[in-house]
Design goal:
Blueprint: E1 2-12, E2 22-29, E3 32-37, E4 43-49, E5 54-57, E6 59-61, E7 84-88, H1 101-110, H2 112-115, H3 127-131, E8 141-143, E9 146-147, H4 148-156, H5 165-180, E10 185-189, H6 200-212, E11 216-220, H7 223-226, H8 228-242, E12 246-248, H9 257-267, E13 271-275, E14 280-283, H10 291-294, H11 298-305, H12 310-322, E15 328-332, H13 342-348, H14 353-363, E16 368-373, H15 378-389, E17 394-396, H16 410-425, H17 431-438, H18 440-445, E18 462-465, E19 488-491, E20 494-498, E21 501-502
Parallel strand pairs: 1-4, 1-5, 6-7, 7-8, 9-10, 10-11, 11-12, 12-13, 13-17
Antiparallel strand pairs: 1-2, 2-3, 5-18, 14-16, 15-16, 18-19, 19-20, 20-21
Helix pairs in contact: 4-5, 5-6, 6-8, 12-14, 13-14, 16-17
Length: 514
């Protein structure tokens, strides 16, 4: 018996969250796991000695702004070094396929805070022209989602109004085209433009199309316009009305959501959510403006902010959102202020923090990003994270941003931190549960077929890590650091990380919904 690759003497955690760990060899042929067992008499082109290490299914990141970074740049391996072998596309509904001309450039400019400094730009006039870029050119796999921002922009422009029946029909047709191309979900960012302008009827209409294909609905929910609890309630109502499973992006278990999740359990609603387990988020400062000031194309927003009355009208709401004003600058178009706190640089400029932030949006042509710490006491945030990590409906996702000067530590540390901090150091969850929350759970929920488990005839997406040393090195002060304790990552049967170093192989491909 011969194999292309044998992983010897590793401790298997299979990704189901149910099977106890055991020691075995894993034999790989081509892109699949051929055998798991005693392969000591078998031959292989390559072997990896995994004695003392965990052998697990490759991790799956269902919410990460990393697809463009996979094509090149300084953070091309930012996800892969953590053991992530598959990531979902179009987080927050961001995407650019089918857009041309001014629309393509405007949405690209608007989403640059999530894409970073990259060498590639649209247009991609068809879905296939976009997806084809990811065929054997990247170190990990991608799975498409329907990018609602692009769908709505193509049909309605930046208009802040409900869709007409004809416009709904056209958006439904584009959604159907994405689902036919293998999209696993309809994805939205209901605080971002132009998705924020979608009413409930639009969501139901498009969700019903996705549901026809056994897709799900995944969203950054409508926090800024209706509030956190009503946004959760809207999502549950949408699930019932459209008959579709729903998934809530970057959330947590606290006194607001725990009663809602208890109701979900009682009522049998089909809902999951994800968390990155850090007490801070990251987005552009533009989101702190009143919603009516965010509407329109990037240039229309800048023109509106230049009007004499706009600043005085917008600052009170910005001040409320900013709280302690301890936000940290992650990147700016000019490269100024990187890594500095908003309150400190505002004081140097003799301005109130909200005024400095408003002015910075204009000075940087809207291209800026900030890390936003939670505006709660540390004891409360620690308690929230402890409640979140153990919740059975929660899976891990990084919400990472790449190719930016000072990213959030979750970008390169999220998955490794779970294994180091929450499993080894805090014993908050078992290693089997952690691996499930990073692999098998995602594959089941997002219809990824034979991935997310170590099983014969499943895809050979595998991570090998040392449970005694695996850890994140990323910090808020120095976030762009690779983790330790993850020596090998295999994608579609080919090593992309070997002895801790990237290889030159790019076996990643587009994975359609199963």
């Amino acid at each position: 018996m011969s194999y292309d690759l044998i992983i010897k003497r590793g401790t298997i955690i299979d990704g189901t969250g149910k099977t106890p760990r055991y020691v075995a060899d894993v034999g790989i042929r081509g892109e699949e796991i051929a055998d798991i067992g005693d392969l000591s008499e078998a031959e292989a082109t390559e072997t990896i000695d995994a004695c003392g290490h965990i052998v697990a299914p490759g991790f799956i990141d269902v919410h990460v702004h990393g697809e463009i970074a996979l094509l090149g740049g300084p953070d091309q391996y930012g996800e892969v070094r953590q053991g992530i072998t598959t990531q979902l596309m179009a987080p927050d509904g961001f995407g650019w396929a089918r857009l041309t001309g001014a629309q393509a450039q405007e949405l690209w400019d608007y989403t640059r805070f999530g894409v970073g400094d990259v060498y590639i730009e649209p247009p991609w006039p068809t879905i296939s022209s976009y997806l084809s870029m990811f065929d054997r050119t990247t170190p990990s796999n991608v799975c498409p989602q329907v990018p609602h921002c692009a769908v709505r922009l193509e049909v309605m422009g930046w208009d802040a109004r409900p869709a007409t029946d004809d416009e709904l029909a056209r958006m439904a047709d584009i959604t159907r085209e994405w689902m036919e191309a293998g999209a696993c979900a309809l994805n939205l960012g209901l605080d971002y433009q132009p998705s924020a302008n979608a009413d409930f009827n639009e969501l139901v209409t498009l969700c019903r199309v996705a549901a026809e294909y056994d897709g799900i609905y995944a969203a950054h929910i409508r926090y800024h316009t209706i509030g956190r609890e009503p946004a959760w309630r809207e999502t549950i109502e949408l699930s019932r009305e459209a008959g579709i499973p729903v998934h809530v992006s970057h959330e947590r278990v606290d006194d607001i959501t725990e009663p809602i999740l208890n109701d979900v359990d009682r009522d049998g609603d089909d809902l999951t959510f994800e968390s990155y387990l850090y007490a801070a988020g990251m987005t552009h400062m533009t989101m702190m403006l009143p919603m009516e000031y965010q509407q329109g194309s990037p240039q229309e927003v800048l023109d509106r902010l230049k009007k004499p009355k706009s600043k005085s009208e917008a600052l009170p709401e910005m001040k409320e959102w900013l709280g302690r004003c301890d936000q940290v600058v992650g990147f700016t178009k000019s490269g100024r202020y990187i890594g500095e706190r908003l309150c400190d640089i505002a004081e140097k400029a003799s301005k109130a923090p909200e005024e400095f932030a408003y002015d910075l949006i204009l000075e940087e042509d809207g291209y800026q990003g900030f890390i936003f710490p939670w505006q709660v006491p540390k004891e409360e945030s620690d308690d929230t994270i402890a409640r979140t990590v153990t919740h059975p409906r929660m899976m891990i996702a990084s919400d990472g941003l790449y190719n930016v000067a000072h990213s959030h530590p979750r970008s390169q540390g999220c998955f490794a931190r779970v294994l180091g901090d929450f499993v080894r150091e805090k014993s908050a969850i078992s290693l089997e549960q952690a691996v499930y929350k990073m692999s098998g759970f995602q594959a089941e929920r997002f219809r990824l077929g034979k991935r997310g488990q170590l099983k014969e005839q499943y895809s050979a997406d595998i991570v090998i890590f040392d449970p005694s040393t695996v850890a994140s090195r990323s910090t808020f002060e120095n976030p762009n650091q690779a983790p330790v304790g993850i020596p090998h990552v295999i994608v579609n049967g080919q090593p992309v990380i070997r002895h801790g170093r990237p290889t030159s192989d790019t076996p990643g491909k587009v994975i359609p919904r199963s």
